[in-house]
Automatic annotation (TrEMBL):
Residues 1-33 are annotated as: Disordered. This is 3-keto-disaccharide hydrolase domain-containing protein. Residues 1-30 have a biased composition (Low complexity). InterPro entries: ConA-like_dom_sf. It comes from the Bacteria.
Length: 407
């Protein structure tokens, strides 16, 4: 949000202090099975040369006893901790979301502290309304692995406690003292850091505490709160019939997209791979959309399994081609180049009538349907999870009745 409301008291977890107003946070929580923290940063250091932080990207600054990443225009802004790789630890921080569309969190199990390649990540999306976890592949592309809905969202101008408790192959994530999920790690050790995407985020009281290697992953115990985040499905379902006249939730990738006559229309007839992307992301889901050609060649379709909402690089796609007489599918590689994967003849989609395109993704494969008929079953995918959106090439297309659901 552009304006930050005054901080209000929030639910307190056992052994933790209450939320404080801007610029001040309560003492960091501790883990009962640990001793002295390996790192305890309150950002009151007066000598920058002794700072334990190594920013890789973004605009990071320690000021007024907090650590702020002040750029909300990009993804994966990272500041690493100058520590040896760790396997059994509790990583804790207070964080406060500012202006932006996504959020921040932790990067961990980082093989090389100079790059995010191969690392794991836990961070907020949807303006603090969704906590997700995933990893980066060896080409730095994000791969979604799971998450929970946070209700109410934490973009309330208040401080919130985020904790990651890791014992080699498994981690537990907790928010404000309440356990929200357990993560199966892809590696058993690595470096640690903070991360933000598309949001200005403040951090304070960052602690790293070494835990005994043979101790079971502890469960967060919360006092009975008056308000607390709740775990929802692995992804927040997304539906839009555009009857409200707006385009809330959509992020335009390219082209000219407008809500016209209770439908979402891409109105430019020149340009390929024009897109608008929803906030929905998952690795197991069904996605359906009604679409109709209005002008130009019939080139309507969908993006899916997108690594990022603001670029087509590292994504899958399916759309009409050959004047509406064929459906083609493929992917865009990390350089944005289209790689053809398959096609099938279909009834003429340029007839000016509504047609329903469907994509079902599960276990790294996709099944494509058109007007209820299976066009291709279990197509192998280059990318197995990510965001879902709409696509138009060299055509004016109307879209309606969007339904993206976790399965």
């Amino acid at each position: 949000p552009a304006a930050q409301p005054a901080a209000q008291p929030t639910a307190q977890a056992a052994g933790q202090g209450s939320t404080q107003a801007a610029g001040q946070s309560s003492a960091a929580p501790t883990v009962s099975v640990s001793t002295e923290p390996l790192l305890a940063s309150t950002f009151d250091e007066t000598n920058p040369a002794k700072s334990p932080w190594l920013p890789l990207s973004g605009d990071w600054q320690a000021h007024d006893g907090i650590y702020s990443q002040r750029d909300n225009t990009g993804y994966d802004f990272i500041s690493m901790m100058n520590l040896a790789p760790q396997s059994n630890y509790a990583l804790e921080s207070k964080l406060r979301l500012g202006e932006g569309d996504m959020g921040g969190g932790f990067i961990y199990n980082v093989p090389n502290p100079t790059t995010r390649a191969g690392a794991q990540i836990v961070d907020f999306d949807n303006k603090g309304g969704f906590l997700r976890w995933g990893r980066y592949d060896d080409k730095n592309a994000y791969i979604y692995e799971g998450g929970v809905k946070i209700d109410p969202p934490i973009n309330d101008g208040q401080w919130h406690d985020l904790r990651l408790t890791t014992h080699a192959a498994a981690s537990t994530i907790a928010l404000d003292g309440r356990e929200l999920g357990q993560i199966k790690n892809t590696s058993t050790s690595g470096s640690l850091g903070l991360v933000t995407s598309k949001t200005k985020v403040d951090f304070d009281n960052v602690n790293v505490t070494i835990l005994p290697g043979d101790t079971a992953v502890p469960t967060a115990q919360a006092a009975a709160p008056t308000t607390q985040p709740t775990a929802g499905p692995a992804a927040a379902d997304f539906k839009d019939d555009f009857a409200d006249g707006d385009t809330k939730g959509w992020q335009v990738l390219s082209g000219t997209w407008q809500n016209i006559d209770a439908s979402y229309q891409q109105t430019s007839t020149s340009g390929s791979d024009l897109g608008s992307v929803s906030p929905f992301q998952s690795d197991s889901y069904t996605a359906t959309a009604r679409l109709k050609r209005l002008d130009g060649d019939m080139g309507g379709g969908m993006y899916f399994n997108m690594a990022q909402r603001d670029k087509k690089n590292v994504s899958q796609m399916i759309n009409y081609t050959e004047g509406g007489k064929s459906l083609q599918w493929g992917h865009f590689d990390d350089g944005g180049n289209f790689v053809f994967e398959g096609s099938a003849p279909v009834p003429d989609g340029s007839d000016g009538e509504w047609h329903t395109l469907g994509v079902a993704v599960k276990d790294g494969k996709a099944t494509f349907t058109l007007d209820g008929t299976v066009i291709k079953k279990d197509a192998e995918l280059a990318y197995t999870s990510g965001y879902v959106g709409l696509l138009a090439s060299n055509s004016k297309i109307a879209f309606d009745n969007i339904n993206f659901q976790e399965q």
